[in-house]
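Good morning C.,

I know you're traveling, so I'll keep this short. The sequence:
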Amino acid sequence: MELILFGLLGVLLVFMIFNTRRRNKQMKAEQEEKATKTVPGVKVLLQGGLYGTIVAFDAENLDEPALIEIAPGTIIEVHSGAILRIVEPIDVEDETDLDDEDAVDEEDFVIDEELPASNETPEETRARLERDSDNK
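The tokens, ready to paste straight into the viewer:
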């Protein structure tokens, strides 16, 4: 009986070692693929859920922050480990199975709120927000 238990323990240890090596090899391959694709101009998804475009990234020195543009003219510094994955563009040609009923017109989504000016002062922002809250 003891011999069977030792045999079972040995099989479990061999399985664990094999499985760990395979998982480490797969993770290393994914990291290398991500490192080769992480170049300026590529769209990425960050750990916090933000999407952006890489402006500067040093693949040799991962302690140096990466520069990510999250909006036109808005560049943030993030740790290189905060880049979760590269966002692959979706081909529109692959989505040919959409019906005319599923198509959405831009006219269906008209926003009639006034947009704040980009050079709005804090006082003007407060006044606009108070105006908006009074209307609701």
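Safe travels,
E.
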